[in-house]
Specification:
Length: 494
């Protein structure tokens, strides 16, 4: 076996064993993995809870605070303490140092966990061995025409239907938007409906606006997909969907990971062994939870993603794992830096500038890798434009009356087609799909970028429609989204 297919020590921290499948040696599960934490382990887990909390405080104050300023206590109350999933502890002490732009959460048993704000790179959880990030933060200039003097969709002029299209029952649409905001348990902070290329209606919670960057969680996975597509279209990433993923560490002669294709990681079907325990398991806040570890530990997330063995064949099974989109983002970084591009500004240049998106903040780990699978912030209108890019097959109308193909021809078909391993037809190329009817009130062709706690950008080609919904919800957001879509589409006579 290659050196990356380790069995004991590092990789087999859950005592995995090796099994031959189809001529490939794969790591499989084993007994003895679910041990009961002792006292030291309990303190370590609490430090992980504090790490995520420090991040949320930092980003709530400094990133969301770019548009909506709240006190530290308000951020804790509104974004953390109210949600049991975040496991806030009553003995936690917290604070923000506005001179060093750091947030900290402390307790007697584990000390202090901190997160540092680095401007356009947002907030980073600092690992215990570092008191600063290891890279030089960069200002990410928005090289976009003045939105107040530039036509929609790149600018803001003419963004709204005036008058509304005759096939839209505006009274019913307004009722749908009002109903959405009235479901107070879902805590919707932004809602935008775009039909036939322009905005039909929008609603915002007090303090939030169309330009407030909000945590988008795993909607960022869909950004990772678009960055791969944009890099391929621009000729920066010399590869196609059926080419092997160009991770140098996977290219050993006996390393089965060299068989993983780009389409496999975009379909979340790489076969990498990367455990996802969510936030309700007894081991959720331990290192065993590899999927969520990137959100609380302060690690190099790209190395964490690629430094995993396989436990099933590539392309065989869809499994929701952060390893795959992080690997996708890593190969884009490789390609960009090989060209001499600045990585920290690359997403803005290759994607966001070209669609007029000016509020995105992609946060990094301490090594400058985007934690694009969850710590990404975007405004409602940023996401509206991202949805329109996909509705329009990856081609953007430019302010001069021309067009700009940003995503390769056929890319949108790929991301909205079920992955071979998605038996319920629920997942495509880092987008969720309704091909299996998971949202009963939504059309079958609906697909969407989705994030934890109900962050959604929904594209519905059959209705020429994009719907954006942002805000941290503790409830059943699938049923809620289905009803939002149903109420909106009922108002359009198609």
């Amino acid at each position: 076996m290659g050196v990356r297919m380790r069995v004991h020590q590092e990789i087999c921290h859950r005592f995995r064993t090796c099994t031959a499948v189809g001529g490939m040696l794969l790591v499989t599960g084993c007994a003895g993995e679910r041990t009961v934490p002792g006292e030291d382990e309990a303190a370590h887990e609490r430090s992980h809870v504090a790490g995520m909390a420090a991040h949320h405080i930092c980003s709530g104050v400094f990133v969301v605070g770019r548009d909506y300023e709240r006190s530290v206590d308000e951020v804790v109350a509104q974004d953390i303490r109210r949600f049991p999933l975040f496991n806030w502890q009553d003995d936690f002490e917290y604070g923000v140092n506005f001179e060093t732009r750091t947030a900290s959460v402390s307790a007697a048993d584990f000390g202090t966990r901190s997160a540092e704000y680095n401007g356009d790179q947002g907030c980073t959880i600092l690992p215990a061995e570092l008191d600063d990030v290891t890279y030089e933060p960069q200002v990410v200039e928005r090289l976009i025409p003045d939105p107040d003097a530039t036509a929609w969709p790149t600018g803001d002029v003419g963004a709204y239907h005036d008058p509304p299209p005759p096939e839209v029952d505006m009274e019913a649409l307004d009722a749908a938007l009002d109903w959405t905001m009235a479901q107070s348990e879902h805590n919707t902070r932004a809602l935008v409906v775009i039909y036939a290329g322009r905005i039909l209606g929008e609603r915002y919670a007090p303090g939030f606006t169309r330009n407030t960057p909000q945590i988008s969680w795993s909607q960022g996975k869909s950004i990772a997909s678009a960055l791969v597509g944009a890099a391929i279209q621009a000729g920066h990433l010399d590869a196609g969907l059926d080419d092997p993923v160009p991770v140098p560490e996977w290219q050993g002669e006996d390393d089965p990971r060299r068989e993983i294709r780009i389409r496999d990681i975009l379909n979340m079907s790489s076969g990498l062994d990367f455990l996802n325990l969510g936030l309700t398991d007894s081991l959720s806040w331990t290192h065993t939870n590899e999927h969520f570890q990137i959100y609380f530990e302060g690690i190099d997330v790209f190395e964490h993603a690629i430094d995993q063995p396989m436990d099933t064949l590539p392309g065989a099974i869809f499994r929701y794992r952060n390893s795959d989109p992080l690997t996708a983002n890593r190969i884009v970084r490789q390609a960009a830096e090989a060209r001499g591009e600045d990585w920290l500004t690359y997403p803005q240049r290759i994607l966001f500038d070209r669609i007029g998106a000016r509020d995105y903040v992609l946060e990094t780990d301490a090594w400058g890798n985007f934690i694009i699978t969850g710590y990404d912030y975007g405004s409602a209108w940023d996401w509206a434009r991202f949805g329109l890019l996909h509705l329009w097959d990856g081609v953007w109308p430019t302010p001069d009356g021309g067009s700009d193909r940003i995503l390769p021809e056929g890319w949108v078909d790929f991301v909205s087609t079920p992955a071979p391993g998605a038996d319920a037809l629920q997942y495509g190329g880092l987008f969720w799909l309704n091909r299996g009817g998971s949202l009963p009130r939504a059309p079958e062709d609906a697909y969407w970028a989705a994030g934890f706690m109900g962050q959604y950008t929904v594209v519905i080609p059959s209705y020429d429609l994009v719907i954006v919904r942002l805000g941290p919800s503790p409830g059943d957001t699938g049923a809620y989204l289905s009803d939002i879509i149903g109420e909106v589409t009922d108002a359009i006579d198609r």
